[in-house]
Amino acid sequence: MRRLTRKACLLAALGLCAVAWSKAAEGPLRRALSFSSLATSLRDVDAGKIIQALQEMRLRPIRQAWAEFWDIFGPGGRLHPDWFIEHQGHLFIEGGLMAIILVLFFQSGYRPSKEQEEEPLTEREIDELCREWKPEPLVPDIAEEDQLPEPPVIQEWENSHWVTVAGRRALNLTAADFLGLSNDPSVAAAARATVERYGVGSCGPRGFYGTFDVHLQLEQDLAAFMGEEEAIIYSYDIATVASVIPAFASRADILVMDEGCSYPIQQGAKLSRARVFTFKHNDAGDLAALLGRIEAEEARERKPLCRRMIVVEGVYSNTGEVAPLRRIYELKERYKYRLCVEETLSFGVMGERGRGACEAAGLEPGQVEIICASMSGALGSVGGFCVGHSEVCDHQRLCGQGYCFSASLPPYLATAAIAALRILGTPDGQALARRVRGAAAELRAALAAGPPGLVLAGAADGPAAASPVVHLHLDPSVESRLGPRPAVAAALQRVADILLQRYGVFVALPRYSVLDEVHPRQSIKLVANAALASEGRVEHVASALREAAAEVLGGSDGGSDGGGAA
Amino acid sequence: MGVVGEGTRASPAPGAAWYTNWLATWTLAVLLFVGRIRDLLWRGRPRPPKGYAPLTDPQSSFYARRIYGRIHDCWNRPIASAPGPWVDVLERESLEGRTRATRALPPTGARRRCLNLGSYNYLGFAASDPYCTPRVLGALSAGGVSPCASRACGGALPVHSELEAMVAEFVGAEDAIAYGMGFATNSASLPVLCGPGALVLSDALNHTSIVAGVRSGGAAVRVFRHNDMRHLEALLRYHIAEGQPRTHRPWKKILIVVEGTYSMEGESPPLAAIVSLKKRYGAYLYLDEAHSIGAMGGTGRGLCEHAGVDPRDVDVLMGTFTKSFGSAGGYVAGSRAVIAYLRRHSPAHLYAAALAPGAAAQVVAALRLMRGEGGGGRGAAKVAQLHGNAHYMRRRLIAMGLHVLGDWDSPVVPVMVYHVGLLGAISRALLRRRVAAVVVGFPATPLLLCRLRICVSAAHSREDLDYALDAIRDVAEVAGIDYARPAGRLWGLRAAARRAAAAAAAALARGGAGGAEGGGHGGGGGTRSASGGGSGAGSWRGSSSSCCSGSASGGEAESEELSAAAADAHSCASSTAGAECCCDEAACACAGARAASC
């Protein structure tokens, strides 16, 4: 900054000099300062007398030299100041000044004086610094509050709803294969046939001979199922939305996200480098206020029109709550935003045709610009997909990082998804989805009062009831009694162990990464599925939860508040 | 233009002659100019609804619409068979007359059996295998299609633990963690390893997944020139001495990230030098072996084995299962502490669906084969076959006079094309000759360093490779990409001209005056110039440019003579063809430019 100021001062001074010079050359100063005054004084010298004196001194060579000199410098001579001025000689001087100004202007930097400049480090000093530097270990020790018991391993897998864990056959409430479509013989048969025909891996990204006919088929089927123009498939669920967001937002653009969004959305927002705004979780009123604020801000700063997108999850994976999509849609239309909905946990279950939370909210296909979902949900396979206008999908085929720069989905997983999608589209599939929705609502209702010490996340009725994912948080009073996070985790783990060993119900305890900016509360997660929809199972699970929670959380002094909650 | 400008800054590959660079730049300039004109006249992209900004930035999509759009039939070609040595490529509708520049082309239903030089099927595990496939089917019965849950939340199966133990043993690390996607392996592990306050020194050609991972972690990144150890050391010294920018606190840690084999170059980093650097300066090393695991080293254990480096000296060994092992997913291997931390905090472990059991079983079976536990030593033979094929391919391509990049053992064999305008022609011509190879341009490579990339597989037989080489030779000759051929094409024009001039000078010199240089080479060049200058056109052009070739330095002329002498019989025979068909536009333009510069 200081350098710039100095440079500017210097330039200004030089400019002033140049102006003064040009003024002086024209004005009255000219006579006093310029060459003409010099010329007059030269003219006044009596040349004849000098020549005569020289002649008298008989110094011929000197006389001759003087005559030659006078021819050049005398009046009419080539180097006489008058000649110089007549022939615009001042232009040379001004040109020279201009050149100096330009040189100064284009100089890379103004060097401050020696005292201010730091001596660069010598090689020896750098060696010394390198020796001194002590790096931290590559990974820190896992913090005490982050230490968790080993996650459970499925010892025997019967189907996606019945597994053996820790020696106990149990109802699996961890898998997101809600409808159990991957258990269908046609799905398994399709996968097996493809493995025999195509092998396992695709051995290349989509661009480089990694596009299989079955990928195209799956994309077509997905688009048809969702009623959208086109679909695009990714080879992994968390890479889907994390690639989609950066494809449609960059530095100048605006992303408005729910503050409860899960990590892949956070990562996508970070990768896009867009301006990110968050609104209160599931609070459409706060969203409206935020959009208004942003609009006012943009208008005040006269920013050019940029791409603006609202990103929400249909069913929030961290809480199981359902987004108020109808309200969000109205706001997006009013403020001219595009909407991206992550439907991983709602696709296949919610909505009359199983198209997800958007359909359940009464939105038509095409009204939401971008819908992403995982295929490790209702489709019982692996991968992710995104549906929307063909322009949306086309652009991702060039700019979706997880699409362009990753090996494509193994073909057998694509055929499994095709077979599952086929079932999902039939009336049987829709009836199955209805039953799962019913079971989820029933489970929610049964847990609404809360097992002792546990609180249901989200509402138990209304549109949220159909959410197939149920999170049970610890009651804040119990949580404060238990103390630090490891104790909370241990308590929940005990509940899960009792559920598994005594009641044959396998539930998951979600864990969160240090990278996650949301820090959700610890919970027990239950995923409603087709097996839960059988007669009496919901009641079994609910009573098992009540008893296990009462034993672990309702103990000692907590008996009263446990009883109160029940 | 921002996007376009970035690519042109990269220095051209060694060996590209000035006129090649000049012509490539010229081609690109014409394409850009025409594209801009078309943008002015036609919109070429859908109009956004009122009040919305366009979905895609017209400036950043310019390259896609106006350059990629002209040749996008060369990519995304669907296939309808296993990606083995031969593959059924589905034919698609023609690019002609399409209004939407980059819209996917619908298949016509016809198929074309092609030799597969595009898939990363290095060890030949892609197609169904008598050892692996039954095990995969077994895993499908035992674990279903997918656990539909994350590893940390009830999706863990015994096959995952088995896979991780085998991978750790195979690469020589204490422990390993497996993920369901190669891209996510980098993009979910790197942010856990390097957060704010850490410095990542990344090779200039590192893969996008590494860039995504580092960026989402929030670490500072400095890029060192590709495989340039002096630059890496200079950066290490500078940044350790200077500390973090603005705060000048010392960096928390420095992570050097390199790839085992660069996918567009086929080159490997000097691992031993990197290890000694990282030890000297206390940095950590992250080695992405996506393309080198299974393919490099005598038993396929990756770059460490190839370079003779103890794998424990590399802090993090990352790799994928999608290439050599013909499956899906990736792994990270390293010390127990690192892997435990990743298990606790990596998003791909906590939030993403677990690796499909079928894919895991495929890798387990492939690793068993590689260790020689089944299939009667087929695994070890695969690596030897792959290296043999790679050597053979490279040797023959170099002998053809093509500019070939990469290490000898590397299965990635890039052939430089330089001209963006030639990419489409080469790819289509090869496909017509039933060879499915990949051409690569911007953004995977710099704009002026377009190339044809050949992936060699252990499943290719010698006949397969010969078939491919025949097709490539023909296409290369027509396209004129045999830049290094001693007597081919443009070079042949100059050589023919020089020889004609030398012969003429020698004839004149009999009279006694001057012509020292011409006389010196008269004996060698004169005999051959009889064939070179045989055709009228050739000799005419020769005389027109003889003035500049006459002034060429003796050293250049001599080296040319040497290389001409080293050329084998077939290139000698085709040198006449080269001189005859020099009425090619490129040659004319170049000869004209040379004449003008005189």
Automatic annotation (TrEMBL), chain A:
Q: Where are the transmembrane segments?
A: none
Q: Which GO terms describe its cellular component?
A: endoplasmic reticulum; membrane
In this chain the Aminotransferase class I/classII large domain maps to 171-512
This enzyme's EC code(s): 2.3.1.50
InterPro entries membership:
Aminotransferase_I/II_large, AON_synthase_class-II, PyrdxlP-dep_Trfase, PyrdxlP-dep_Trfase_major, PyrdxlP-dep_Trfase_small
Q: Which GO terms describe its biological process?
A: ceramide biosynthetic process; sphingosine biosynthetic process
Q: What class of enzyme is it?
A: transferase
Essential cofactor(s):
pyridoxal 5'-phosphate
Q: Which GO terms describe its molecular function?
A: pyridoxal phosphate binding; serine C-palmitoyltransferase activity
The pathway entry for this protein reads as: Sphingolipid metabolism; Lipid metabolism; sphingolipid metabolism
Any signal peptide, and if so, which residues? 1-24
Could you tell me the keywords of this UniProt record? Acyltransferase, Lipid metabolism, Pyridoxal phosphate, Signal, Sphingolipid metabolism, Transferase
The record's family statement is: Belongs to the class-II pyridoxal-phosphate-dependent aminotransferase family.
Q: What name goes with this protein?
A: serine C-palmitoyltransferase
| Organism name | Raphidocelis subcapitata
UniProtKB/TrEMBL annotation, chain B:
Q: Which GO terms describe its biological process?
A: ceramide biosynthetic process; sphingosine biosynthetic process
Work out whether the entry's keyword set contains DNA-binding.
no
**Transmembrane regions listed in the UniProt entry:** none
The pathway that the record names for this protein is: Sphingolipid metabolism; Lipid metabolism; sphingolipid metabolism
Q: Which cofactor does it need?
A: pyridoxal 5'-phosphate
- Give the EC number: 2.3.1.50
Where do Gly residues bias regions lie? 516-539
- Keyword entries, A-Z: Lipid metabolism, Pyridoxal phosphate, Sphingolipid metabolism, Transferase
A GO MF annotation of the entry reads:
pyridoxal phosphate binding
Report residue spans for region: Disordered.
Answer: 516-540
> Which reaction is catalysed here?
L-serine + hexadecanoyl-CoA + H(+) = 3-oxosphinganine + CO2 + CoA
Domain Aminotransferase class I/classII large: start-end pairs: 114-472
Source taxon at top rank: Eukaryota
What's an example GO cellular component term for this entry?
membrane
- Please provide an example of a Pfam family that matches this protein in its UniProt record: Aminotran_1_2
Q: Which family does it belong to?
A: Belongs to the class-II pyridoxal-phosphate-dependent aminotransferase family.
Q: What is this protein called?
A: serine C-palmitoyltransferase
Species, as recorded: Raphidocelis subcapitata
